[in-house]
Amino acid sequence: MATLLHIDSSAFPGEASTSRAVTEAFRRAWLEEHPGGQVIYRDLAVEPVPHITADAHSAGLLDPAEHTEEQARAFAERLVLIAELEAADAVVIGAPMYNFTVPSTLKAWLDQVILMGRTAGSPESRVKGTPVTVVTSRGGSYAPGTPRAPHEHVLNYLESVLSVIFEMEATFIVADLTLAAEIPALQHLAPLGEQSRADAFEAAEKAARAA
C-alpha cells in the first residue's frame, strides 16, 4: 500500500491559507492516482512538535542502552516522527514564508527527523530518493530579479535540507503575490498573483500524479 506523508505548517486554517489549499489539491490527486493508498497527516500549527532539546539531540549519538530516562523519552518522540517519514513513498510539505523563512514549527519538525546515520549521512537511509513536493506561498514576490530576491530563505533552505541532507528528490511549487490584492502598493500585481495561484494548483496535481 502506497503511503503519503502530508505536512502543513501554515498558521492559517483552511482556504485562508494558500499553501494548505494547494497541498490538499496534491493530496486529492495523489489519492486518485493511488486508490487504497494511505495518508499520514501532520498539522504542525495545530499540533506542533517539540523543538529539539539537548536530551533529544544527544540521544541520537548514543547507544540506546546508555540513554538516561530523559534522553529515552525525548528520543522516543523523535523516532515516531522519523518512522512516519521513513514509511512514506511520497511527501508533500506546505511551507509558507514567514518573515523571509519557514515557519518555526516546520523547522522544529526537520530538526527532529534529521538523524545522522539514519535519515542523513547513511547509504542505507530509507528516505533517500523519496519524492518530496514543497508548496510555498509568499505574500509578495521573491523571484530572481525582483528587489526582494536576496531575502528568499525558504527555497534555498529547504533545498539544502531535503536534497543535500536527506538526498530526497525535491520539487518546489511557488505561489507568489498571495497578498497583492490586499496591499495597496501591490494591487496592480493582483492578476499575476491569481495566475501564480492557479499555476500552483496545476503544478501540484501534476506532481502528485508523478509521485
UniProtKB/TrEMBL annotation:
What is the free-text note on the cofactor? Binds 1 FMN per subunit.
Could you tell me which Pfam families the record lists for this protein? Flavodoxin_2
Matching Gene3D superfamilies, A to Z?
Answer: 3.40.50.360
Say if the entry is tagged with keyword NAD: yes
Q: What is its EC number?
A: 1.6.5.-, 1.7.1.17
What cofactors does the UniProt entry give for this protein? Answer: FMN
The reaction(s) this protein catalyses: 2 a quinone + NADH + H(+) = 2 a 1,4-benzosemiquinone + NAD(+); N,N-dimethyl-1,4-phenylenediamine + anthranilate + 2 NAD(+) = 2-(4-dimethylaminophenyl)diazenylbenzoate + 2 NADH + 2 H(+)
What's the domain of life for this entry? Answer: Bacteria
What keywords does the record list, in alphabetical order?
Answer: Flavoprotein, FMN, NAD, Oxidoreductase
Domain named Flavodoxin-like fold: residues: 3-165
Amino acids binding FMN: 10, 17-19, 97-100, 137-140
Its function?
Quinone reductase that provides resistance to thiol-specific stress caused by electrophilic quinones.
Assembly with partners or alone: Homodimer.
> Which family does this protein fall into?
Belongs to the azoreductase type 1 family.
* Entry-linked PANTHER family: FMN-DEPENDENT NADH-AZOREDUCTASE 1, FMN-DEPENDENT NADH:QUINONE OXIDOREDUCTASE
Write down what this protein is called: FMN dependent NADH:quinone oxidoreductase
Query: Which source organism?
Result: Streptomyces xanthochromogenes
